[in-house]
Amino acid sequence: MALSQGLQQKLLQKLSPQQIQLMKLLQVPTANLEERIKEEMEENPALEQTDEDGEDLYNEEAKDEFDSTDEEEYDLDGSDDEYENLDLSEYISDGDDDIADYRTRDDNYPEQDEKKTNPVKFESSFYDLLMQQLGMLNLEPKQHTIAEQIAGSIDDDGYLRRETSSIVNDLAFRQNIETTEKEVEELISIIQQFEPAGICARNLQECLLIQIEAKMKQNNAADVKIAFTILDRYFEEFTKKHYEKIQRSLNITDEQLKEAMNQILKLNPKPGGNFGEVNKAETYIVPDFYITNTNGVLELTLNGRNAPDLRISEGYRDMLKEYERGSKKDKRQKEAVFFIKQKIDSAKWFIDAIKQRQNTLLHTMTAIMNHQKEFFLTGDETVLKPMILKDIAEKTFLDISTVSRVANSKFVQTEFGTYRLKFFFSESLSTESGEEVSTREVKKILRNLIEGEEKRKPLSDERLTELLQEKGYNIARRTVAKYREQLNIPVARLRKEL
Known about the structure:
By secondary structure, the protein is of the alpha+beta class. It folds into 3 domains: 16-61 and 80-119 and 284-425, no CATH class; 120-196 and 268-278, no CATH class; 428-495, Arc Repressor Mutant, subunit A, CATH 1.10.10.60. It is built from 23 helices and 9 strands. It has a 4-stranded mixed sheet. Strands 1-5-2 form a 3-stranded antiparallel sheet.
């Protein structure tokens, strides 16, 4: 194969460190922003927090993280020329630009600026609850260790989804304890008597049977006995809601079947669901925005409680001043100053990225608020307009991916509740009159139709399609089925009640 030369032209986009940092910060919700700032302060000693009041930084335009124009460049390669030509004038001058204040101020709502702490939930985990009950049993050391292994294998829903043989192998290889499957099963039976009832079951049927057996010990009524029989012998028919078959097989009346089903519906299919450990940031919603309605005028404020005031460390500036005043400057001193200069540059990057993050959030949310103004005034989901990421990107002159990062993990608090920003984005659907409406409006009407249906004869997807078409919505049956699934609503047969 002969060698050849050619000329090729390529267009590439290179992201600067500052752009990458802004991209990551935009994705961080307010609940986690304080932790991210603390991490940066631990890594960079030139960055410090201050309680002083600075100037309001919200008068700048929102910046797209993909926009590289007018961006400062800090290209330092550590070469000899860099050491010889260190310009420290901008680093040692005292200016107001080193203090950053990211909190929105409103004289009418001063209480929003008083607290900077997130709510913290103190609670015992599901495993701690099991250990407390395990400590009340009179077990031998070996049995206690095996019981701990079993309790540790129970998932957050309260189920033991591991094979008994696997637990035996874990005890043998990891804890050097020889045991048998029979001994493990005996301890599993003991743990199944713990509170809440139904834990340590291998499947849903066993979980419900444990709970109904506990009820039978307290109340041996006829409806509880029938409920036990249904779960024990007709569980498949029960899950498929074949009530007629169950009624014929047990030879019971409609009233008896209804009472037995009421007993089953009171059982908890996930007994450990209220105790499972979850991420604290997900447990509590800390809104990123607040929208208030003042006599028909919407006011948007940005939650700045978790963005402390940041500035460049005065100690680092003093070190640079000492270097400038000194006459003897060896290479060792220059290397130290070069390191300080890099840290200060990094701190400036971070402060600028935090400022840009807040401006971008505020700019994007303002566009969303203006687009969905009717909803924020009334709280009625049916007035939501069709809106996609591209619509907001065009209004804010930001990249679509930038808008997506803002909308993914942010929340807004209104007088009608707290909503995720993604809630306001939806596709459009045409009506008979040619008007475009939001698919969320159609879903709201679909939910209302299903909630108002007769539970003995639920509406099928075909009937729901007809009802929506009667209201003027051009929609197909498969689209209705898709929306129903997105609303987590089962098919008509599974919605049937006695």
